[in-house]
Design a protein that fits this description.
Oligomer: single chain
CATH topology of the largest domain: Glucose Oxidase, domain 1
Number of strands: 25
CATH architecture of the largest domain: 3-Layer(bba) Sandwich
Shape: globular
Length: 545
């Protein structure tokens, strides 16, 4: 297929329009003969679900649809109040291990291993599913039935020895059964705390000690927490976290996994000083890919592509024009832990803070009914549709984007040579990228394939992110190490996002460390927090190679 394309642009600090390129990427690639199966293990986060810890003073999750597509905005813009103990979540050592300078009984270097310090290889590994369904509801009200070393030994007798590189998952089917909208959903946590229902199954400290001595550094449970109620939560946490373990709490759908052999991963926002984090758990089963990714984690071959989320960093767009800025990332302290000398904290944040997802519903209305855009945007739409066809509509918010769309072979296209090609008096303006850049890349490597993730390397975030003094036959995901894929020209930015959404493609914006990605054998993994009806989605991007 020969296409004559208008030129594409890269601003002096990020992308301008990618609309013509999106057309090429969504049509002009070859299909793979076989694809692996992605399995979601994440609970849906929504206000009417029991997705947060119900005790005072933990904040309830809230999403605010600040702006909707219409006269005031060409985009759907969301913010939310979220605590790291929300939905499917990650615990890291500082949850129980005190900082070394405190010189307390539970102090140690791991007390500094916050969510922004954990090495990315530790997030994944081979799923070893230990079946403890026989424990479900087998305890008095308010008390957790205990997973003991005997359950691990039973698994090892049936399968193989647990070892370093495994992600041990305790499957009780608890969340599958009890994670429901409120008030029915009170059974998930609140009824246990009120001693109205049996507790969720969880490992005891001896079980954690056994796994720690086996070299296991990642666990998961489909219970609401890794801490048995009423009085073993902290002993169990410390027994595992003192070994440097991390774990998933509130996983679900573990019954879809084989006992061994699948690749399991948890990816969540990289909060500065965070002892825990909301996030996304998933697995990959079938074909050769799981074995390849498991080996990468075992050999610690991983690259973190996400910046740390910190109030000190410019993580959200300042907007074009007064009053058009996005919500700044804020840290909110709500509970002081005296022993750890640490505040438990949540965040008020834009849904596109840091590394984040751009789903089709961000820029597209949810129906084909006419939109009352302001006159200038209506003019842009007329130009767009004349050139590229109907804009379309979409109900595909973040939680509806398939996980396999945002993971795949990393294809890095270097466009850093274009930086600085504009004159200052012309700003905001962009140096031009043409389809020839893509064609030259393919000639020097190989043709783009279905399942690839195309990453445009600008070098912008690595240089400037610092504290202030389509079609099923084509590419599904475009990523960039710039703040966004739109750029400084609002018209061209609008067309870029319309083109992305109308071809059922998604974007992953604000990467870092793209220059560290190997030219061959690099697999890109990204997952956004599973918030219902969200038009963005913070997450974590990594490379396994």
């Amino acid at each position: 297929m020969n296409l004559t394309l208008p030129q594409l642009s890269l601003s002096h600090w990020n992308w301008s329009t990618l609309a013509p390129l999106i057309f090429v990427l969504s049509h002009g690639v070859n299909a793979w003969s076989e694809e692996p199966r992605f399995i979601d293990h994440s609970l849906l986060i929504a206000p009417e679900y029991p997705c947060t810890w119900p005790s005072h003073p933990f904040p309830r999750f809230a999403i605010v649809h600040q702006r909707k597509i219409g006269p005031e905005s060409a985009y759907n813009i969301d913010t939310f109040l979220i605590d790291g103990n929300t939905g499917t979540q990650l615990d890291v050592p500082p949850h129980s291990v005190a900082r070394p300078e405190l010189k307390r009984e539970k102090s140690g270097p791991l007390g500094l291993s916050y969510t922004d310090k954990i090495e990315p290889w530790q997030f994944g590994g081979e799923a070893c599913v230990i079946d403890v369904r026989d424990l479900l509801d087998k305890a008095p009200k308010g008390i957790s039935p205990l997973v003991t070393p005997a359950h691990v030994e039973r698994f090892e007798k049936q399968q193989r020895k647990i070892r370093f590189g495994d992600v041990v998952l305790f499957r009780s089917d608890y969340s599958d059964k009890y994670y429901r909208p409120l008030p029915e959903g009170r059974r998930f946590i609140a009824d246990i705390l009120d001693r109205k229902a049996p507790g969720y199954p969880d490992p005891d400290p001896d079980c954690m000690e056994l796994l720690g001595k086996r070299g296991v550094l990642a666990l998961g449970t489909d219970s609401a927490s890794m801490g048995p109620l009423p009085d073993l939560a902290e002993p169990t946490h410390y027994a595992g976290l003192k070994y440097g373990m991390i774990w998933t709490e509130g996983a679900t759908n573990l019954g879809e996994l084989p006992s061994t052999g699948a690749f399991y991963c948890f990816l969540g926002p990289k909060h500065e000083g965070g002892p825990y984090s909301e996030g996304r758990a998933f697995s990959i089963s079938g074909g050769d890919l799981p074995k390849r990714l498991i080996e990468s984690c075992q050999k610690k071959r991983a690259i973190d592509l996400s910046p740390t989320l910190s109030p000190k960093l410019p993580l959200t767009s300042p907007g074009i024009g007064t009053g058009n800025h996005r919500q700044a990332y804020l840290k909110i302290d709500f509970l002081y832990a005296k022993y750890l000398d640490m505040w438990h904290h949540g965040h008020y944040m834009d849904s596109m803070a840091g590394t984040h997802l751009v789903p089709p519903a961000y820029s597209l209305p949810d129906t084909d009914e006419p939109v009352g855009y302001e006159p200038e945007v209506r003019g842009w739409l007329e130009q767009y549709e004349k050139k590229y066809g109907k804009r379309g509509s979409s109900k595909m918010t973040t939680e509806k984007v398939p996980l396999d769309w945002t993971s795949g072979e990393a294809r890095v296209i270097d466009v850093r040579t274009l930086i600085g090609k504009t004159k200052q008096q012309d700003w905001p303006a962009s140096p031009e990228i043409t389809a020839e850049h893509i064609q030259n890349y393919e000639r020097s490597t190989r043709k783009l394939q279905v399942g690839d993730v195309v990453i445009f390397q600008t070098g912008h975030n690595d240089k400037h992110l610092k504290p202030e003094p389509a079609d099923t036959k084509g590419i599904r995901c475009i990523a960039s190490d710039a703040p966004d894929l739109g750029g400084v020209d609002p018209r061209r930015a609008q067309m870029t996002y319309w083109a992305l959404g109308s071809r059922e493609m998604v974007g992953v914006e604000m990467l870092v460390n793209v220059d560290k990605i190997p030219s061959k054998g690099a697999y890109f993994l990204f997952a956004a927090v599973k918030v219902r009806n969200c038009h963005g989605g913070p997450g974590r991007a990594i490379i396994l190679h």
